[in-house]
Structure prediction request, 221 residues.
Amino acid sequence: MDIEHKTKPGVVDVLIADDHPLYRSGVRGLLQTTGTCRVVGEASNGAEALALIDRLRPDVVLMDVNLPGINGVEATKMIVHRNRDIAVIIVTMLEDRDTFLSAMRSGARGFLLKGAGADELKLAIATVQAGSVIFDSRVSDWVVEHLTKPPALQDPFPELTVRERAVLELVADGKGNAAIARDLGLSVKTVRNYLSRIFAKLRLADRTEAAVRARRAGLGH
Prediction:
């Protein structure tokens, strides 16, 4: 729903994207009490949000996650890609780590849980409008953990099965088919079949290339 056009300088134009009319109405009422924000549009689904944003060019978008059609995380990615000057704040009932991390990776500049009052919304909007990020205090522990824990080791060959990877690691050690079969409790024919699948998946010409590629990726001893 298109409500108003761009407003005067000094007032932040906000678009609300949420599929619950009563929630949109409540947030609009809260923002009207701040004196510094004005709702210029409301959207009930992701596609409508994107269309209104292209036309109204709000300063800030309050985005729910569970929108019909294009969800809030995907919509945020599109908004950030098209309009780097528009800040998105995710406002959701989903109090879980995966939702939070997905939202922030999408380019959102804020994450609030529903139930935030007028002062919290005003602070969040002012913060992202100034170019900073803001998180609900209830998810602050996730932020600290995400920033301080060591990154997980990445599997260099995710397309391989566990058994194929084990075979490739022994190839990297320079072992022949008979030795690999003995170490893994397989027949030599089965080892050859595994090697054929490995060569195909990794687009390798032969055993030598497989060993070189595996050792460069850190396999072998």
Q: What stands out?
A: The chain has ten helices and six strands. The chain has two domains: 12-148, 162-216. Strands lie at 12-17, 37-43, 60-63, 87-92, 110-113, 134-135. The CA atoms of residues 18 and 207 lie 56 Å apart.
